[in-house]
Structure formats: structure tokens, C-alpha cells
Write a structure and sequence with these properties.
The structure is a single chain. The chain has about 625 residues and is of the alpha+beta class. The protein contains 17 helices and 22 strands. Among the domains are: about 110 residues, Nucleic acid-binding proteins (OB fold (Dihydrolipoamide Acetyltransferase, E2P), Beta Barrel), CATH 2.40.50; about 130 residues, GAD-like domain (Gyrase A, domain 2), CATH 3.30.1360. About 30% of the residues lie in helices and about 20% in strands. Helix 5 packs across helix 7, helix 5 crosses helix 16 and helix 8 crosses helix 13. The protein is globular. The structure holds one RNA strand of 77 nucleotides.
RNA sequence: GAGGGCGUAGCGAAGCUGGUUAUCGCGUCGGCCUGUCACGCCGAAGAUCGCGGGUUCGAUCCCCGUCGCUCUCGCCA
């Protein structure tokens, strides 16, 4: 709604002398029905087309674009003002709405049936020549966009994405308010704890040498809120991790953090399914399945080659150990004999794509990044024939491999042999993902799935001890409670990730609420009781006072909106993101500070030595 | 920490098996224009081809280094 003079008068507020002609309607608000009305528009000059005695101005604000006309009967003053206008000048237009002549209607414009004949134009502020065009025709490089983010945010694309993000968060809040969750804020100056990513530290002026940390997530606080009997909590929470940025990762990002008491895994999954169903109807006008597919971590790795499968296309990875020993390929034979793995997939014959040597080499490069030594390949021909690559090792076994994949003439079979199961899976997964994109197999839409039954621990080779695969507060599945210490690698946790279109968009678990079990997990992760008490004492203490069973999840807002906006970088859905080098070109942060500030904080900067030749 | 890609007027691009007056579109400045909607027309300004070095008679182009951005691996429970 526009704040209008009428509204102020209705409330009995005396108008001060007018600072400027204040809008009575927005640039997206006019329709045929408004013809004849006197209106005031405020906005930016999107484009102007000066025909001398006739002058058109496309005036833009958040709501749309309206054509303003300065006619040939305009006063000299008005004509002169109009001639001075340049792109992105901020102006006020007083005028009268009129219908456009039939032949002048612009069907591509929401307001294309009308125009505003200007009686006067007021320049509210001028604009320098633009560093880049904001009409979205050509996209300037990202660094420049970030430096002039205030202009970049004026573009149609950014305006749309900010709106989408707003609608998304609004719908989420509406769901949680309706379902009786409390929205509770947790601190952003917290205790640094040793799990997870590198912390951002905040020095304490009162306590020399002591630091707060910025939260990597509100994890421990939300668990304590459960101990406090809050029962159902959520928060749109900012989180901070001092690690290298990526397309889908920023130093600071936003999570929908939620936690519930007296629940099991399936309760959390059901709530999330219900929430996303409601939100996607509201925001995307899209009906999701009422239940999302569930895939175990093990199956996901085996079939899709990662723990965040893109289910929008259906290439599947096959276990080829049995088939491999039928071949005469020594690498396959020995890999299987040594307890290793052979896996493969079938790339469908695709019009316009030739499976050339060069093409296969590029696929091999993708596999090698994830640890494959090579990529074996076979071309499938007509009438159950094989050719090229390692086909000579499958002489007489053609039907075996062709039937395995139900392969057709022109298909390409790609295989990896590796001693290490995970590397075998992930390198095939990289090939699968690349094929999905390059063969244009990816269907439009939203394919959610749950990944469940993750291992609770993984072994850290560098530091030679077990650590939590997710985090140390997740509950082991009950059938492993007796073998936690004797066989940590086999333990599955009550963990779940939500995956959408190949991205991990949420991660959660049922939590431990038993002090002794929690301590046991700490010990397996090489944290002794004394350290545990020092770092996590507040949580352990809380758990001595009747903690309820509880669990939760935390969907990433940025990633979700990115996918909904069909973008591949979360920077596109964050108003003021950092660049890859972890700084903000607009405000030039981080920056040096005054030495007095450092002294106050009892800090001294130590600069790394410059590299010598 | 490692690898790939990119770097040419304010912006987006072209050029290069080594020789050009370095090209085009948008924007900017000046002029013309009565129905445009990426308005049109005429004219002008604007580039040490990221930076440093090398090869060469000659480098925007080839080589080495360096800086910046970007994507990826590591890292990110």
C-alpha cells in the first residue's frame, strides 16, 4: 500500500509543507479502470525515448513499470525537465491516467493498456552514468555487481529473487506459527566449541585473551531449549563458518532451525514434508508428493554415487563385481579379488552428442577428481555388439553386460574399478552428474528425497581417530548401542538429510539426551571427560535435569531459494553476499582497524611473511 | 593448500597460424526527430588489450611469472 496524503488526512495528521510530490499509486498499479484519474508516481527512469516534441519515459519501482508521456502541448518548463532526464534519475510525476490508443497498447507490459500524461515532473535526485546497465540484457561480471550491489538489486532478476525469498520465509513462518511452534532467538555471541568448522571469533574487551565465537548453528542452544520445556522451537537463524566459499556456500548463511521434544525421526520427516508441501503450494504453485522418497545412505552412494542424488534423471550406477570377474580384464579381476569394487553406468545414446574420445576423456577427468585412476568404456553397437575401449575383454560376454544395463545401440558404458568403495562410488557419481547435465537429461521440477541411516562416525586418517560424521549430539540407532566402542565404523545414526535436485538442503537428527551416552560419544571422538566438561559442560549439566527425548532439523534457506529460483549460486539469492575470496567489494570488508581498537581488545595483528622468490 | 576458466573503452562482447588506424552493441556527450516501448537518424569522445618479464625486426596474440575474479578438489559436523 502506498502511504498517501489521504491516509494522513484521515488520521488527522497535519501535513507539513510537502517535501516532494508523494505517490498516490505505484508504477505497477494502474489499469484501464484508472483512466481519467489524476495520479502521482514516484520511481526511477528505467528508459526514456525522446522524440523531440514527444517524450516517453518508462518509470519503474518495485511494483512495475508505467509509461509516462510528455506531450507536445507540455509547458516549456516540463519539456526542458524531461529533456534533462537520464537513466535511473529518481523522479516524481504528476499527471493524468489515460487509455492508450488501441494500436499503441503494449501487450508485453502489465500496465500496457494505459499511460500517464505528465503535467509536471520533479527530479528528486540525479544519477551518475551507470557502471553497468540494469536492464538485465548483458550481465556484468560478478565482482562489479557486488561492488555496486545497490544497483544490481534494482535489476528485475534480483528484485524477483528477493521477493521469492521473502515469500518463502513468510510461508515458513506462517506454517510454524499455525502449528504452535515458538520462535525463539538464540545468541550470536557464544562459546567456541571444538566440533565442526572453523569458528569466527569475537574478542572480549572485558576479558583479555578470551573470545566469543559466532554460532555455526544454534545447535546446543536449541537442545537446551528442549530441556527447558519449550517443546517446539523454530528460528530463522544466521550461521557462520570460517571456511572457503563455494557456489552453494557462504561464510554466513541462513538456516530454518527447528527442534521438537518427544519425537522420533518419522515425526520430524512428516512435519518437514507437510511444511514444504504447504510452502511450495503457496510460493511455487507446485504440488509436492505428500511423502518424499527415502533412500539409505548406502543405497544412495551405490546407486547415485553421492549422498545428495539428483533424482531428476534416472541414470543408475550398477554394481559390476560379478560381471567383472567374467571378463578377461586383469584390472577388474584383481580389483575384485582384492576385495575392491567395480561399478558402471550406461550413458544413453543422445541426439547431437557424439561419444568421441575427447568426450570420454572429459568424463574420465571428472571421475579422476574423485579418486578414480581411470574410466573404462565400451561402446554398444547394433545386434548385441561391443566395440572400443575395454570391449576386447568382454568377448563372448557381450550379452551379459548389455542385459545388465538393458543397453541400446549407440549407448556408452562407463566403468570404474577401485579398492575403496567410497571412491569407486563418488567417481562414478561425478560421471553420472556430468552426463545428466551434458546429455540434457535433467527434467524440470523439484525432486525431494530423504537420505537416512548415515554412519555416525568416520575415521580421520590424518589425526588417527574417529569423529562424528554429522555432529556429536546425534543418537546412534539403538541396535548399535552395545557395539559403539568396539566397532564405531559400523554404527548408523538416527540421522537424516533432505536432498533436493542434487543439493543437500537440510540436515538433522534425533539427539542424544543421556549424559553417559553423550560422554561415550565424546570419548570415541577423542574428547576426554575433562575436555568434554570444559567445552560442553553447560550441555552435559543441562542433561542432568530431566532432558526430554528430542530431535530436529535445519533446512538451508539460501540453498532452497537458489534451487527454487533455478540459480546455481546462493549469491543470487542473498542481498549482500561475500565473494569467493571472502570479502565484500561494496563496503570493502574485512578492513584494517585503528590500533586503538586493537589495544582495547588486547589484540595485536601478526602479518604472514610475504613469499620470497 | 591444489587445479581449470576468464581478464580487450564505463558495461557486454569480437579480433589473434604474430604485422589492423584494435571492431561491434549498449552507455556517455552534441545535434535532429509527434506514438515510441531495446524508438530511430547524424556526429563525437572514450582502450597504455590486467600487470611485469622473455622470444621476435615486430606481441592484444606465443612463453614464463604475477595479480584479480570465477568454478572445482581439499576443507565445510
Amino acid at each position: 500500500m502506498v502511504i498517501s496524503k489521504d491516509l494522513l488526512l484521515k488520521k488527522g495528521i497535519d501535513m507539513a509543507e510537502e517535501a516532494f510530490s508523494q505517490r498516490t499509486i505505484t508504477c505497477g498499479g494502474l489499469t484501464k479502470a484508472d483512466a481519467g484519474k489524476k495520479v502521482v508516481l514516484n520511481g526511477w527512469v528505467h528508459r526514456d525515448r525522446n522524440h523531440g516534441a514527444l517524450h516517453f519515459i518508462n518509470l519503474r519501482d518495485r511494483y512495475g513499470i508505467t509509461q509516462v508521456v510528455v506531450d507536445d502541448d507540455a509547458s516549456k518548463e516540463l519539456q526542458e525537465t524531461a529533456a534533462k532526464l537520464r537513466m535511473e534519475f529518481c523522479i516524481a510525476v504528476v499527471g493524468v491516467v489515460r487509455l492508450r490508443p488501441d494500436s499503441m497498447v503494449n501487450p508485453d507490459m502489465a500496465t500496457g493498456e494505459v499511460e500517464v500524461k505528465a503535467d509536471s515532473i520533479e527530479i528528486l535526485s540525479k544519477c551518475l552514468p551507470l557502471p553497468f546497465m540494469i536492464d538485465g540484457e548483458a550481465e556484468p561480471n560478478e565482482d562489479l555487481r557486488l561492488k555496486y550491489r545497490f544497483l544490481d538489486l534494482r535489476t528485475e532478476g534480483m528484485q524477483k529473487r528477493m521477493k521469492l525469498r521473502h515469500e518463502f520465509v513468510k510461508a515458513i513462518r506462517q506454517y510454524f506459527y499455525k502449528t504452535d511452534f515458538y520462535e525463539i532467538e538464540t545468541p550470536t555471541l557464544i562459546k567456541s566449541t571444538p566440533e565442526g568448522a572453523r569458528d569466527f571469533l569475537v574478542p572480549s574487551r572485558f576479558y583479555p585473551g578470551k573470545f566469543f565465537a559466532l554460532p555455526q548453528s544454534p545447535q546446543l542452544y536449541k537442545q537446551i531449549l528442549m530441556v527447558s520445556g519449550m517443546d517446539k522451537y523454530f528460528q530463522i537463524a544466521r550461521c557462520y563458518r570460517d571456511e572457503d566459499a563455494r557456489g552453494d556456500r557462504q561464510l554466513e548463511f541462513t538456516q530454518l532451525d527447528m527442534e521438537m521434544s518427544f519425537v522420533t525421526r518419522d515425526d520430524i520427516l512428516a512435519i518437514m514434508e507437510e511444511m514444504f508441501n504447504e510452502v511450495f503450494i503457496k510460493v511455487m504453485d507446485t504440488k509436492l508428493p505428500e511423502q518424499f522418497r527415502r533412500i539409505t545412505y548406502h543405497d544412495s552412494m551405490n546407486t547415485y554415487g553421492n549422498d545428495k542424488p539428483d533424482l531428476r534423471f534416472n541414470i543408475e550406477i550398477h554394481d559390476l563385481n560379478k560381471l567383472a570377474v567374467e571378463s578377461t580384464f586383469a584390472l577388474f579381476n584383481t580389483t575384485v579379488a582384492n576385495g575392491g569394487f567395480v561399478k558402471g553406468l550406461c550413458a544413453p545414446n543422445t541426439e547431437g552428442v557424439s561419444f568421441s574420445r575427447k568426450y570420454i576423456d572429459a568424463l574420465q577427468d571428472a571421475a579422476k577428481i574423485y579418486g578414480a585412476q581411470g574410466l573404462a568404456w565400451i561402446k554398444v553397437g547394433a545386434n548385441n555388439t561391443l566395440s572400443g575401449g575395454v570391449s576386447k575383454f568382454f568377448v563372448g560376454k557381450e550379452e551379459l553386460i548389455i542385459n545388465e544395463f538393458n543397453a541400446k545401440d549407440g549407448d556408452l558404458i562407463l566403468m570404474v574399478a577401485h579398492e575403496n568403495w567410497k571412491k569407486c562410488c563418488t567417481s562414478m557419481g561425478a560421471v553420472r552428474t556430468k552426463l545428466g547435465k551434458e546429455l540434457d537429461l535433467i527434467k524440470k521440477g523439484f525432486e525431494f528425497c530423504w537420505i537416512i541411516d548415515f554412519p555416525l562416525f568416520e575415521f580421520n586418517e590424518d589425526e588417527n581417530h574417529w569423529e562424528a560424521a554429522h555432529h556429536m549430539f546425534s543418537m546412534p540407532q539403538s541396535q548399535y548401542l552395545d557395539t559403539l566402542e568396539s566397532d564405531p565404523g559400523a554404527v548408523k545414526g538416527d540421522l537424516y538429510d533432505l536432498v533436493l535436485n542434487g543439493y543437500e538442503v537440510a540436515s538433522g537428527s534425533i539427539r542424544i539426551h543421556d549424559v553417559e551416552l553423550q560422554k561415550k560419544i565424546f570419548r570415541i571422538c577423542n574428547i576426554d571427560d575433562a575436555t568434554a566438561q570444559e567445552k560442553f559442560g553447560f550441555l552435559l549439566d543441562a542433561f542432568k535435569f530431566g532432558p526430554p527425548p528430542h530431535g530436529g532439523i535445519a533446512p538451508g534457506i539460501d540453498r532452497m531459494v537458489m534451487i527454487m529460483a533455478e540459480e546455481t549460486s546462493i549469491k543470487e539469492v542473498i542481498a549482500f553476499p561475500k565473494n569467493t575470496a571472502a570479502c565484500s567489494p561494496m563496503d570493502d570488508s574485512p578492513s584494517f582497524v585503528d590500533s586503538i581498537q586493537l589495544e582495547e581488545l588486547h589484540l595485536k595483528a601478526i602479518f604472514p611473511e610475504k613469499k620470497k622468490d
